[in-house]
Amino acid sequence: MINQKPPIKKRRPKVTVIGGGTGLPILLEGLKAADCEVTAIVTVADDGGSSGSLRNAVNTIPPGDIRNCLIALSDMKDIYKDFFQYRFGNEDKEFSGHAIGNLIIAAIAEMRGDVFSALRLLSYMMEVDGKVLPACEEPLILQGHFADGTMIEGETAVVSHPDQIQHVTVRLANEDPTGPVRQPQAGREVVSAIMQADTVILGPGSLFSSILPNVAIEDIRKAIVDTPAKVVYICNIMTQLGETEHFSDADHVRVINEHLGAKAIDTVLINKTPVPYEFLESASEKDYLVQITHDRKGLAEQAAQVIGCDFLNIEKSGVYHNQDKLVDSIMDVMKDTEK
Q1: Which domain covers residue 25, as residue numbers?
Q2: What's an example GO BP annotation here (predicted)?
Q3: Which among 225, 289, 229 has a CA at the least distance from the CA of 256?
């Protein structure tokens, strides 16, 4: 009888995704289903809702985006995911609005002494296929800089300011004003995840409040510029009130490259399908948005390959990227890189 060698398992492509917000978990879930080795690097400058409240109350990083990324990469049963995601009702006083998962992350970080150790334990408990890493292991304050020279601190305050944001920086939330100034440092394994990836993805997510707070950390900025990986930016479909009014797709890429200090974006994924007029007219005034315009010349100046696709996925809650088409396009980019 001839002994047959076991088949050689194909290496999973390494994808590192940098961002935050609601779009990130959707992408992570799709990349996991496509059998990628996924690492999520998540912003820690959020100061709103349950995350912001816990950050101030127990001196920890905001856990909300991290919670959603853990769920997206988890293989545990749905009943346990539902438990982790459950939010207390408005009648629950001090616990109102808090997700159980946020409380668990904060508690284990305190028990283990740091958030990195807490996330390693949680990833094991939750059967996470991949890694979820905070961009920094200390909470950060987002600083918005405006054309008139004004600087405003705090994500909520920055995006509420009526003027156009020029650029953002971050500082440590727990900085001692009487001591030496410490610069935010990338969390453990963050730089190596960027440098060792086959593909690094920025977005989808809010430009100034989900993506750029990560880039504003010097270690991360330098790693994105220096990585041999292909750097892909997923451009938003709609403009965002308080951040990107009147922005084209080229404006988004230009602002990221300006924060990076180099034309480091290799590929831009843009939606080429018009958003129906009826949907735009039905949106409430508070959430009034317009579709991002296409600037072919401006994109050419940023020296990035442009891939257009029908990414449009309209739901009652808003306009999103179609998960399957987005992942298919990313996989195509990786295949072209391998050639």
Answers
A1: 14-338
A2: regulation of cell shape
A3: 225
